[in-house]
Amino acid sequence: LFSLISNIKNNEQQLIEQDNDYVINLLITILRLLHQTSLDERHVDLTAYIQELFQSVEDLFSNKYNKQFGLTILKSLTQLLKDYNDRQALKIEFLKGNCLKTIEFILSKQNNSHVICIILLFIIKFIYNSENVRQSFFDYGGYEKIFNSLYYIETPTMEFINELIELITETTTVQILYDNTMPIFNSSSSSSIIDLFIELINPHIVISLIHWLPHIKIIEFQQKIVYSLNLIFFRSLQNKMIACSNGIVMALIQILDNNQQYDKIVLGNE
């Protein structure tokens, strides 16, 4: 199967859509079967299979004719991370398979915002709700090596922004609060009508979002991020302390110093 993908890459051929779906279904099915069987039952090493899988994705991205196929495989892997029952263990296997190196390499060659969003969605689902993976991602330097690609995204979708904001608390609570407390600017009607606990789980993605702010062209989306951060920081003393001890305040100061045109947006909410 991997030889087939390699041959497609080397010969600059494209699979038709039906073939794409067939190959991807095979890749995912084999991955599931290998992961769900015991070591003595496997005829193929799981780590080796995952390494080959991500290497194939990398190879496909290196050919402009087959980039879309590689992107479709990544979408399927992202969906797997959302739906798979034992996704926590599967994420550890992805780490062993050097998936982060593949993602970093692919992103280093991209400047298309749509493609970058799809790749980052894989990473979002990969580190979501997994403390071990989140720590490994931090140790790898992923917030700098991978999330710096956000700078190429000037007009994101609101759905993409919501996915990133959910990484901060690993819940949808912030969105619930946002929907119920978002003030009408220049109005006094901003009192909270519900009281929900929010824990700041991932301060590192907050810094990535703050540094991304000047690159976002849509003011409404800047406000969405800043107001959401405001909800999180001021929900508890613990969150304020985490923000101070993890460089978030310094990141805000840097944005204000270097991007005076954004002062009103940030200061108006922070």
Keyphrases for this structure?
270 residues; mainly alpha; 2 domains; 16 helices; globular
Q: Mind explaining what this structure looks like?
A:
The protein contains 16 helices and no strands. It has 270 residues and is mainly α. The protein has two domains: 1-152, no CATH class; 154-270, no CATH class. The longest helix has 20 residues, at 17-36. It is globular, with a radius of gyration of 21 Å.
Give the helices and strands as they follow along the chain.
Answer: HHHHHHHHHHHHHHHH
Class by helix and strand content?
mainly alpha
Largest sheet: none
Number of strands: 0
Shape: globular
Distance between the termini: 53 Å
Give a quick summary of the entry.
The protein has 270 residues and is mainly alpha-helical. It contains 16 helices and no strands. Mean pLDDT is 86; it is low at 184-194.
Outline the secondary-structure elements.
Elements: H1 2-10, H2 17-36, H3 46-61, H4 67-83, H5 87-96, H6 99-108, H7 113-127, H8 131-140, H9 142-145, H10 158-169, H11 173-181, H12 203-212, H13 219-233, H14 237-245, H15 248-258, H16 263-267
